[in-house]
Specification:
about 325 residues, alpha/beta, Glutaredoxin, 4-stranded mixed β-sheet, two-stranded parallel ribbon, globular
């Protein structure tokens, strides 16, 4: 995702432009088909991160290839500046905008990650980040790995939807509302709402291991991608500084539990996360200096959440080892 600044005092996220879906039931022009699409994500972006996590948990690596844009971009869009020749090795493009322009000549709207791109034509199909991971769970079932968890179980969908709605407005988007507020009042309202929601989540998670039910669901994925960025970025850069995540005992233990679960921490590149936020948001950080800290080795410390019970993958199994081509730098010894 690229944050679009609002013209008002309060930050408002611009709607995505490509609302198409890729479906298995023929309800859209884009059918589910292994090898047809490439997921373009970025390690820095929380919205993209959740699509990478769900793809990995469900074992969709062989069905949907992964392109990773680098952490830096400008008004032209995300760029593949970490790839050889600054080009995605499959799509052959330097800027993600090129895929949007192939889909819509003269395209002049937002270019965001995650984006699904049709490999054969190079056309961007959808950047509907709110729906994409739900469709990975429901539309791509034919290509799930054996033992894939059910991240969006039908019996819990109403509760999951309610949880992710509040998390989206107050936490996922809430940190941006703090960081990009252009008045003291707008900032303080966003700050109060963010920490009120985090306090409520702490209370909820004090007695249960996961947000909904006794297994990992879509709700956990969506909350976690913001928590993992909290201390490196949001606490200082976005002025979300009542407390660090590491000073909120329940949420800190919850976040470490998931970080140490295959499919979560093994998608995180803390260096790229910091490079993006501090290097791109020059209106907030004019110097472009990227902080050296914080120390992230504490993400591997014991969390004790097993005592609450729960089965992370339900009746399924953890995903296997990360493909070498998709591996991220490891922390700790």
């Amino acid at each position: 995702m690229v944050a679009i600044l609002s013209t008002s005092e309060s930050f408002e996220r611009k709607p995505v432009a490509l609302m198409e879906r890729i479906t298995a039931d023929g309800s859209s022009p884009w059918p589910v088909e292994a090898g047809r699409y490439r997921l373009v994500a970025a390690r820095a972006c929380p919205w993209a991160n959740r699509s990478v996590i769900v793809r990995r948990l469900l074992g969709l690596e062989q069905a949907i290839s992964l392109g990773i844009a680098g952490p830096l971009h400008d008004e032209r869009s995300w760029r593949f500046h970490n790839d050889p020749d600054n080009r995605d090795p499959v799509l052959g493009i330097e800027w993600l905008r090129e895929a949007y322009e192939k889909a819509q000549p003269g395209y002049d709207d937002g270019v965001t990650v995650p984006t699904m791109v049709e490999v054969a034509t190079g056309k961007a199909v959808t950047n509907n980040f709110q729906q994409l991971t739900l469709d990975f769970s429901t539309q791509w079932r034919e290509f799930h790995r054996p033992g894939a968890p059910d991240l969006y179980p039908e019996a819990l969908r109403a509760e999951i939807d309610e949880a992710i709605e509040g998390v989206y407005h107050d936490v996922n988007n809430g940190v941006y509302k703090c960081g990009f507020a252009s008045s003291q009042g707008a900032y303080e309202r966003a700050y109060d709402t963010l920490f009120a929601r985090l306090d409520a989540l702490s209370e909820r998670l004090a007695g249960q291991r996961f947000l909904v039910g006794d297994t990992i669901t879509e709700a956990d994925v969506r909350l976690w991608v913001t928590l993992v960025r909290f201390d490196p970025v949001y606490h200082g850069h976005f002025k979300c500084n009542r407390q660090k995540l590491s000073e909120m005992p329940v949420l800190w233990a919850y976040a470490r539990d998931l970080f140490q679960t295959p499919g979560f921490g093994d998608t995180i590149d803390f260096a790229q996360i910091k490079q993006h936020y501090y290097g791109v948001h020059l209106g907030i950080n004019p110097s472009g200096i990227v902080p050296t800290g914080p120390d992230v080795s504490n993400w591997l410390s014991a969390h004790g959440r097993e005592e609450l019970g729960g089965r992370p993958f339900g009746d399924g199994t953890p995903p296997g080892r990360v493909d070498e081509a998709e591996a991220v730098p490891q922390i700790g010894p």
